[in-house]
Every structure is written in C-alpha cells, then in structure tokens.
Design brief:
Number of strands of chain A: 0
Structural class of chain A: mainly alpha
Strand content of chain B: under 5%
Order of helices and strands of chain A: HHHHHH
Helix content of chain B: 55-70%
Helix content of chain A: over 70%
Strand content of chain A: under 5%
Oligomer: heterodimer
Largest sheet of chain A: none
Number of helices of chain A: 6
Distance between the termini of chain A: 53 Å
Number of strands of chain B: 0
Largest sheet of chain B: none
Radius of gyration of chain B: 21 Å
Structural class of chain B: mainly alpha
Order of helices and strands of chain B: HHHHHHH
Largest interface: A-B, 33 and 28 residues
Number of helices of chain B: 7
C-alpha cells in the first residue's frame, strides 16, 4: 500500500472534476442547495449553517464514509432542517458515489484510493459551495 | 494508520450497509408507514452507536439485554400484529449480537471473525503442552505478550466497532427517512452524473 498521491493521480482527479458534465452537476447541486437552504436563513449575507457544516465535514473527513454518514444522519434526523436535507441528500450521495467510482478507476492501491476520494471530495465541495455562493450573490443583487 | 478509514470506506462500510439493507428488506420494508412504527426507534439507534464507539466490548451484552426485554413483551402479547413487530425487534438485536461475535457456520461474517483474521501472528495465543515448565523469564515474556495482545484487541475493537456501527446506524436512519417520507420510497430515482 502506497499512501501517497502522485502528481499524476492528482492531475487525473482534477481533470475529472473539471470535466464539463461533472462540474455542471456540482454547480447544479450548489444552486439546489441555495434554493433549499439559502433562502430560509435570516438576514442577508449569511451563509447557511448547513452548507458550512457540509463543507467542514468534507474538509475534516478522514474517509469518504464520514461525509456519506453525515448526509445520511442529517436526512435521518427528526428535528432541524431534516426535510430540506431529504430534498437534496440523495443527489449529494449519488455525486459522492461517482467520486468513489472515479477514484477506483485511477488507482488499484487502497491507500491511494482513500486519499484520492478525499481529494476529489474536497475539490467537489469547493465547486458546490462556490455555486451556492454565486447563486446567493445573484439573489442579493436583485 | 490508514487501515481503519480504508475499511470504513470499503469492506466494513459495505458490509454494514448490506446488513442494514437485508434487515430492512426482511423486517421493515412495507409494514411501516412512519418512523415511529419502525422496529427500532431512533433513540435506540443512537444508544447503539454510542456504545459501539465508547464501550464496544459491552455491545453484545447490550444487544442481549434489549433482546430479552423485547422477548418478555412478546410473551405477554396476544395481538398477532404486535407479535410480528416484536419479532422484528428481536431479529434486530440478534443481528447485532451476530455482527459482534457470530461464529461460522451459522454466521459467515462478524467483527470477532474479522478481528481474529487481523490479529498479528506474533500476538496469536500459544497453547502450552500439558505440564510445561516455564522459566521466570519465559513466564514474564508470556505475560507481556498477553498484555500486548489485550491492548491490541482493545484498540481494534475501539477502531473497528466504531467504524462499522457508524455506517450501520447512519444507513438505518437514512433508510428510515427515505422509506417513510412524504411521497413514499424514491430510492434510486436521483440523477446520475
């Protein structure tokens, strides 16, 4: 097991995230997150705490399962914004599954796959949150 | 260092999800319309997760205790519908016990079996021949090895029980939400990349 990401693997992962279809899905999700969570927050300028929670979970996760479990737990709650999470959760989980599949294609090494999944997830959440913030900014300019 | 997250992301995680899917398919797929009717309540899942993370060695006993409580209620019940619900609860706690330390041939996979396979060869227990005499040094070495083994087992339990049951509990709550929300089960109708 080689728990190091090579420049080639990072390039492959980044190229995957840059693919038009993949990026488009992430952007759509960001917009969906704004429609679901963004407009319900009180006060302009505030980023939904749910989006921050998702972002923080992705950044601090030590495995993709942590992120998937976070989404499932949010969907499975019976208090707080669980209804909103149930609207967007399956799309998030589906996109995470695609990241997992991509990592599996790029390397057979289990340690590299783990790190690559996390690298992909962090790139993905940047695109998602970026699209969320863009949608939010647009709304605020209206 | 990466063994635990890799396991959680791959075989352990997949196993946990599979076990929940199979249980739900058999015991909770169609009979329940609301989360409050599911065989195992959210609070019990929360308790299960807490014990798995903090006191994994107690999990099997916890499951057995829960099973016994439900079995006592089953004996006192005459309503057929309620009996079926209680049987579903009993099946859940039996599943947890089996996942902890089920043995072949009845149970093909359990945490105990996985732990046994993962145990480093240098920590395997050695059986002494009958009447074997050990020197003081050998006795000391044996004692130290047992202590190392004990520590290894404790750490393994702490890491892997948590990894397994985090996924197990999250997926149970997820299915509970998916299968009882308004509009019914939309499992699998989300967009593909």
């Amino acid at each position: 097991m080689n728990p190091l990401l090579t420049p080639e693997l990072i390039h492959q992962a980044d190229s995957f995230l840059d693919r038009e279809d993949v990026h488009h899905k992430a952007v759509q999700l960001g917009q969906q997150l704004f429609e679901t969570f963004g407009s319900k927050e009180k006060g302009k300028g505030q980023v939904s705490s749910q989006i921050r929670n998702l972002q923080q979970t992705v950044v601090s996760a030590t495995r993709l399962a942590d992120i998937e479990d976070f989404v499932k737990n949010q969907m499975g709650r019976n208090a707080g914004p669980y209804r909103e999470w149930r609207q967007v959760g399956d799309t998030i989980l589906q996109q995470l599954r695609e990241l997992r599949k991509a990592a599996d294609q790029f390397t057979p090494d289990p340690g590299q796959r783990l790190l690559l999944r996390l690298h992909l997830a962090r790139g993905w959440v940047r695109a998602v949150v970026g699209a969320y913030l863009y949608a939010k900014a647009h709304k605020e300019m209206e | 260092m990466l063994d635990v997250p890799i396991a959680a992301d791959t075989d352990f995680g997949e196993r946990a999800i599979l076990e929940v899917e199979q249980y739900v398919k058999k015991h909770a797929a169609h009979q329940y319309s609301g989360p409050e009717e599911w065989p195992i309540a959210r609070s019990q899942i929360s308790g299960l997760r807490q014990i798995a993370m903090r006191e994994p060695e107690q999990l099997k006993d916890f499951a057995e205790h829960q099973r016994q409580k439900v079995a006592a209620r089953l004996e006192a019940t005459t309503k057929e519908e309620r009996k079926q619900e209680l049987l579903g609860e009993i099946a859940f706690w039996e599943l947890i016990k089996n996942l902890c330390d089920g043995k072949p041939p009845k149970t093909h996979w359990s945490l105990a079996q996985a732990r046994e396979q993962a145990l480093p060869p240098e920590l395997q227990e050695e059986k002494l021949p009958a009447g074997a005499q050990l020197t003081k040094e050998q006795q000391q070495a044996r004692k130290e090895k047992q202590e190392r083994r004990k520590q290894w087992l404790r750490q393994w339990n702490r890491d892997y029980y948590a990894a397994f049951f985090q996924r197990f509990c999250a997926h149970y709550l997820y299915l509970m939400a998916r299968r009882t929300q308004e509009g019914g089960d939309r499992h699998g109708d989300c967009e593909e990349f």
